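ok so dumb question maybe but i'm new to this and my supervisor (M.) told me to 'just get the structure for Excreted virulence factor EspC (Type VII ESX diderm)' and walked off. so i did the thing. is this what she meant?? sequence i used:
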Amino acid sequence: MAEPFEVEPSHLDAAAGKLQILADDNGHTKSYLAQWLELPESKEGLILQGLTGVIQELMTKLQSNYSQLGRVTGESAAELVASARMYRTTDNATAAALDSAYDKGDR
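this is what came out, is it supposed to look like this??
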């Protein structure tokens, strides 16, 4: 027999909190990437000239990816919060409907 489907809204809230922390921390990646991957332009050295362009292209792609990751993670956290709210509302409404269905004399 299959187990019944149950959702604990507090668990959704906890997961949303962790995702939101991740989304907030993601904001620091732009400065981190700039600190470690920005190289001064150089007219000297054939190897450094070639590497500078490759590293700049890599940094641009990473910044784009992290920006999208932060947005998606933040949106996921918001959706989990909304889901928890919906489950709380649905559960409370269902309980209230059941309570009102009983005859007051039978309680």
